[in-house]
Amino acid sequence: MNSSFFGINIGAQALYTARTALDVTSHNISNMGTEGYSRQIAKQKATMPIPLGTGKGMVGTGSEVYDIVRQRDVYLDTKFWNENKMLGEFTIKRTQLSLIEGIFNEPSDEGFNTIFNDFFSAFQEVADNPESMEARNGLKEQALTFTKFFNDAATRLKEYQKDINFEIGVRVKDINTIAQKIESLNREIFRYERHGDKANDLRDQRDLLVDRLSRIVNTEAKEIEAQTPSGEMQKQFIVSINGQTLVNHFTYNQLEIKVRESKNNPTDAENLYDIYWGGGVKFDTTSPTLSGEIKGYMDIRDGNNNNGFKGKIESVDIDTREIVIANASKGDMNETGEIKINGKAYKYSSFNYDEDSKKVTMILEMETPIEPGSLENQEVQIGSDMGYKGIPHYMNRLNEFVRTFARAFNEGKTRGGKEIPEMTGHAGGYGLNGETENHFFAYRNADGNIKNMTTGIDYETLTAENFTLSKDIDDVANIAAAKEKGLKGDGRMMQELFSIKINTEVFNEGTPGSYMESIMGELGVNTKQAVMIEDMQINISKIVENQRMSVSGVDSNEEMTNLIKFNQAYNMAAKMISVMDAIYDVTINRMGVS
Q: Where are the domains of the chain?
């Protein structure tokens, strides 16, 4: 038989259910503006009915809230993380490539084309007035402006590289901070949920951290059921970045940055970072699966368009540890550094490049003897190849320009030493005092001294950063305007040098101007591509985020409807208790009273 107060118990249960639903609704409304918050729903069901014992069925006992769940779609979360990594990567690339574009300052009155045209116009002035010291001084000033353009461009590129290097360090710290917070939340969530509760708000905080992590680096997060040593099944949250575990439930790995011992590219700034796992294993920044902001920064900082140093060992001197590398892809590497032979790293010194044979000799710095036959015919590489066109690529393109242009201008030869038809170069002309063999361009060495390039290999030492005028023309009378000695009014050498502007034999891309246009053209294409992909990713990310919000977001209209619905349920439950109270009052206090 039912309790005499059965009806009041059902009403009280209805009050509790409605009140809990109202509390959940209030929580949703108060977190409408909270980043990462997921809408929660109070799940309710009818409580266990009581059989009448008469064969006529069962009577209900009311309702209860059996769970409070957050609205979340794992598929949409995963899709958002996949799109977010691409957005992070190309936002960085768009920003950094736009900065690099600004270096060339085109089109403007201070850009390359203006400086280049003014430089050659000054040659025409000397050609027309070979004996004019004013015209010669004007040429020298324009030439200094010309070299300074490349000096400034290289310096700014190197400064950008340092800035990006700093940002990589910041992102590594961000990853470590996020990993630590996720591990801490895992512990809190486990503590709250081990007895069956739901830590919904803590789970939101954890998912928000994964959202942020996915912008920095490609991220995978999943919750699995794992068996503990005691045999108990336990939920564990695992986070991986670039395919390697960052957080494994109650443990997490840390990343660290280490300054490179040697440069990947000869033009690299000093003290660039490599990323390592805490155990000393290198984080694979060349992985084809890497993406996110880290990928964007790495591509811009290290991208050399796969133009690193490569070759094959031709011979080995076991006693001196000298190796000869044939088919060397380039000859402008650092004097000392690290070389990989069949994937194994060795320190080297005494890098020496022979322009004619395209061979390199160097000394391996080894404590143990070289095993006979162990290194011959092995593939070698200095640094790492990065397929993207980043700062090292554009530095290399500028270096190629100044080396090729300077040799053509000084000697009338291509960068490889081939004679250019109808071109003798500035060194073949004569100044006002009759002197010849004077160079026009030179380079500034590490000590700050100006040096002329006397051999082909010397031009490999010339860079956009150290490009300058030769000391030979400190006295502008030494500027070689004449083709023949003693003809002070002869301006034919100036005319010959002026023709370099339109000469198509100097560069594979055509004229010197065409070469520089090709640099700015590929930079413009890469920037436009980054902008296009970024815009596309912004749109895709918005679509996915809107889909997530349709599931997890708090809708004011829906919550207002729920507020009214649960308020009415609460009022009706209270009314029911009031009615039952009146019934019991009559039953207890008034029935049978005379």
A: 6-71+553-590
